[in-house]
Amino acid sequence: MSELRETALQSKAWPFEEARRVLKRYAKGAPEKGYVLFETGYGPSGLPHIGTFGEVARTTMIKTAFEVISDIPTKLICFSDDLDGMRKVPGNVPNSESLHEHLQKPLTSVPDPFGTHESFGHHNNAMLRRFLDTFGFEYEFYSATEFYGSGQFDEVLKRAVEKYDDIMAIMLKSLREERRQTYSIFLPFHPETGQVLYVPMKKVCAETYTVTFDDEDGKEWTVPVTGGNVKLQWKPDFGARWAALEVDFEMYGKDHSTNTPIYDGICRVLGHRAPEHFTYELFLDANGQKISKTSGNGISIDEWLTYASTESLAYFMYQKPKTAKRMHFDVIPKAMDEYHQQLRAYHGQDLKAQLNNPVWHIHGGEVPESKMVVPFSMLLNLASVASAHDKETLWGFIRRYAPEATAETHPDLDAAAGYAVKYFEDFIQPAKVFRAPDDIERAALQEFRAKLAAWDGETDGDSLQGIVFEVGREHFGKENMRNWFKALYEVLLGASQGPRFGGFVALYGVEETVALIDKGLAGELG
């Protein structure tokens, strides 16, 4: 056994822990289908969002971990439930008024309001695939429309007819009394209108594999369950899809957790072993409320990538998936800096520590070196004091601080400079509030200015930080150093918190910092 596999089998990193659970399913040998199947689902009623990224990224991390500890081939499927009926017209699409006549039709039967694809469902599926391809995910795409219509689901649908009473018994336990009266696991498509019908079944025939029902006008119809004439309600569909594809692993949000026994039970009734599953906690907005697609209170994938790298988002997704986390714009700088801290640490770590490092899982073991010689938080402060509105302004300071760095040799730093300018313009600049120093702070700032003006030593962060501490201890005492740092940030930067100030001086420049202090003392910064 290789050292990598042996170490991975003991790793406490959560992707390896999940991978080991999947491996236990096949302790006696590989599955008959020849591979281990990981699945993620997508509801194409809207565009892919940050939760879609998180689900595929995390599942990919577990799949990659599995490939280290096992020689069994793997496959990742992204399944689009594009047979769902369009229940309301989205407000953010062109020509929305033309869609009203298509309500309750499957999304792949609704005309594409963008005019670029065969249907609205096909359009959103294309957006999903482009979305996943942009991030380099390796996956196979499955469409519910094709899955039902091509007959790939027929055998499981026949078993669902044969086991109809057993599946209904599982479902009815979870429903209110009034819903029980009209509920059926099957949703037929109206033979004339094509709409998805939520009607009770008058008869489910295991001999002919047909269902009989009345439409909303009272007309009776009998249709086969095969060939794309019906679909399953979403909860039965979950379990039936697991059975049809022989899924080995699927993760989903905590809001699904109460349905897990339903999904598992239906999968078993249909003759297959339920997969391993992983329930992750949901993200919270700035006010601690659950992020919702419909309320739009979260941060979108495009918004995150306006201000930070894909890798920083993957790092955020990796962290404590079973813990609810605030996901708002103010978490972005921390994610950027912590990702690069882990990247810098990785190449000096032993194998055990590397496999526990988030960057191993973000990069699938092919971990690059960080070229971020200036932390992102420092770039933000630099953009703030320099009022930078283009990254070239920041590069003027970076080149002096790190002469070996260029946009070509340090592409991650170059990208970060662009992100920092945008973040500054949208979040820091509007929130800057400067104040005048009190008497103690003024005296400390004057001494700090004098020491900087007289400084002829190295302009490295550690040496300059020594001056910061020296002045702070003299004027505030060791026990009140926090007040000194707060004064530096609020008087000079217009913020309540800020960088390690010696490093900031080294980057911004000693003479420039002296001029900044002069402006702060004169009340010219506000």
First CA to last CA: what distance? Answer: 65 Å
Major sheet, described briefly?
5 strands, parallel
CATH architecture designation of the largest domain: 3-Layer(aba) Sandwich
Provide the CATH superfamily of the largest domain.
Answer: HUPs
What is the spatial order of strands in the main beta sheet? 3-2-1-9-10
Shape: elongated
Q: Specify the helix fraction band.
A: 40-55%
Number of helices: 23
Notes on the structure:
The chain has 526 residues and is α/β, with parallel strands linked by helices. It has 4 domains: 225 residues, HUPs (Rossmann fold, 3-Layer(aba) Sandwich), CATH 3.40.50; 80 residues, no CATH class; 56 residues; 83 residues, Arc Repressor Mutant, subunit A. Helix content is 47%, strand content 10%. The strands form 4 sheets. The protein has a 5-stranded parallel beta sheet with strand order 3-2-1-9-10. Strands 5-6-7 form a 3-stranded antiparallel beta sheet, with no helix packed on it. It has a two-stranded antiparallel ribbon with strand order 4-8. The longest helix is centred in the first third of the chain and has 20 residues. The protein is elongated and about 95 Å long. The termini are far apart. The mean pLDDT is 93.
